[in-house]
Write a structure and sequence with these properties.
Radius of gyration: 18 Å
Helix content: 25-40%
Largest sheet: 2 strands, parallel
Oligomer: single chain
Number of strands: 8
Mean pLDDT: 91
């Protein structure tokens, strides 16, 4: 892209850009924007009601932080440069999927979710294609959604 050429021309530095899906993992703070996995986990462990904005059918591509770290290491050690890589699982999971997983695995949780109006401008579905990272870096996600979530309980 033009941005890549400009960066290289101005700085004469090789680089790679990693575009990350929704990253989650241990020690993720539930009080920050975009950490719905941490928010749900924290609230449900405290037996507090979870809020759904919309119908809960909106989907995201959640990638475990360990897989993301491995992508950065492979990118830094690679001979490949001046590329943009999408780092995600290529799989969409809904907020309801997330809620049901925690509901089934956090035994003390006994609340129904609070359903609120969908927020304006919210993306309904999102996932990333990691084929380029697989082809050029040898990276692909190793930790499944369910395996990753189990580490948070």
């Amino acid at each position: 892209s033009f941005y890549q050429i400009l960066c290289y021309w101005l700085n004469k530095i090789d680089f790679n850009i990693l575009r990350l899906a929704n990253v989650y993992g241990k020690r993720q703070r539930p009080d920050l924007e975009g950490g719905v996995i941490a928010i749900f986990s924290d609230l449900m462990k405290k037996n507090q009601a979870v809020k759904f904005y919309g119908d809960g059918k909106q989907t995201r591509d959640w990638v475990h932080v360990d897989d993301v770290v491995r992508a950065f290491i492979l990118s830094a050690e690679s001979e490949v440069s001046n590329e943009i890589f999408s780092i995600g699982t290529g799989k969409r999971k809904s907020l309801k999927d997330l809620y049901i997983f925690f509901e089934d695995n956090i035994k003390e949780y006994m609340k129904e979710p609070i359903i609120l109006k969908q927020r304006d401008g919210e993306i309904k579905h999102m996932s990333l294609n990691y084929n380029s990272a697989k082809e050029k870096l040898g990276w692909e996600p190793r930790i499944s959604f369910e395996e990753g979530l189990k580490t948070l309980i």
